């Protein structure tokens, strides 16, 4: 199938009023069928939507302005990695704070000057997250001083601008690989965190065993957006992979990359350590999809589904 989809993803829909109140028509052959990775998705997980053109009735130039949204969030579409000429996909991160219940993906497109839309129901279920007591964290890392608060506020701005996605195209051409040679999970994503008896946060990343000085590798190719010491994360590397996807690597002892570096999948980023708010050396690994922090493990599985191949594992002896 040699279908060219004309997409005008940035020029439309940003004023929600126009988008949701556009006149609609429901006739002619509908251009797409849709495939959701799952009809049920946990908070903190990622949903994969694939938009598959239906038959030869869809001609080049007839289909335009395809958009996918949940509520007021617009999800950009990209050419499918293995069906580049026809299928489109988008990755939808479900924020951790999303309450369980029914939700809807709204899909809308223009075909022969008529607007079509489709509602794809899915449900958000409560993720399998535990509560965890963490003791022995130095009190000055639990209740920061006034000076620390100023530092944290400064760093929040730096981090927020590092997360601004500037590369709309994919920089990744494959599944993720794990950032350590031997993957041993010491703490899963999503656990509710109680520090020294005070509920402070949820665990926004995946902790992988990485004794002091363990080499850490880029999970995928991209551009380094941040490589510096931060109050909570310690020595931290943030990589942008395009398509609104970022990975983060925290608590490192040594940084071998700097902001602006272009890195390839598997490139050495630095060594693990125990800098920042930690009790012992490990890797805190994060994945962020269009501003939403998600479970790295489940995201990696979704990417494997998208690329139709398993996650690359460096050390095949691991469990
Ligand atoms: Zn962690």
Structure in words:
- The protein has helices spanning 16-20, 139-142, 146-162, 296-307; strands at 32-36, 40-42, 46-53, 63-70, 73-75, 78-79, 88-93, 101-111, 114-125, 131-134, 185-187, 192-195, 198-202, 206-208, 215-217, 222-230, 234-240, 245-252, 254-255, 262-263, 268-271, 283-289, 292-294.
- The protein has four helices and 23 strands.
- The chain is globular.
- The strands form five sheets. Strands 11, 14, 16, 17, 18, 20, 22 and 23 form an eight-stranded antiparallel β-sheet that branches. The protein has a five-stranded mixed β-sheet with strand order 2-9-8-4-5, with no helix packed on it. The chain has a four-stranded antiparallel β-sheet with strand order 1-3-7-6, with helices on one face.
- It folds into two domains: 16-125, Immunoglobulins (Immunoglobulin-like, Sandwich); 131-307, Glucose Permease (Domain IIA) (Distorted Sandwich).
- The structure holds zinc ion.
- Zinc ion is lined by residues 187, 203, 205, 207, 284.
- The site of zinc ion (ZN) has 5 residues, from loops.
